[in-house]
Amino acid sequence: MISRRSVMVGAALGMAGCAAETPQYIGPDVTRIQVFKEQRTLQLLNQDLLLRAYNFELGFAPSGHKEREGDGRTPEGAYRIDRRNPNSSFYLSLGISYPNANDIANARALGVPPGGDIFIHGTPTRALGVKDWTWGCIAVQNEEMDEIYAMVQTGTQIFIYA
Fold first, then answer.
1. Fewer CB within 10 A of the end CB, N or C, for the chain?
2. What pTM does this model have?
3. Which residues of 19-41 are buried (b: 16+ CB within 10 A; e: fewer)?
4. What is the DSSP letter of 74?
5. 93, β-bridge pairs
6. Is residue 132 helix, strand or coil?
């Protein structure tokens, strides 16, 4: 017969197992993200202190600032992390606040839609080892996305450079 204590211990162990899947971070706040497209380096910083750095893949046309929907480019400029998606099709994802008012105005002047849904996200199996495969997002390895997702909060500034 199973005792009440055995059920409680089993439940606690089961909960601990589930908690391990939820990314956790204890450390200095990430106050800024810097993305250097040409160097393929994403940095998480607390003020001027570098906390972590990652390599990444970009869109299929990585050079230049995103101008329109479907151009395969990643925007350049100052944005914010504006949403978190724990159920992303690309593992986990953090939304970037593109397009901003300037992006919309520039696209309107060109007579094209600006696009949107730009994220930092993980990498599906089918894209492992593929160079610059996204539609304009920043793709890191899933294990790295665990760390980034745990460390970065909504509202964090992100600066994307050429």
1. N
2. 0.84
3. eeeeeebeeeebebbbbebeebe
4. P
5. 85, 121
6. coil
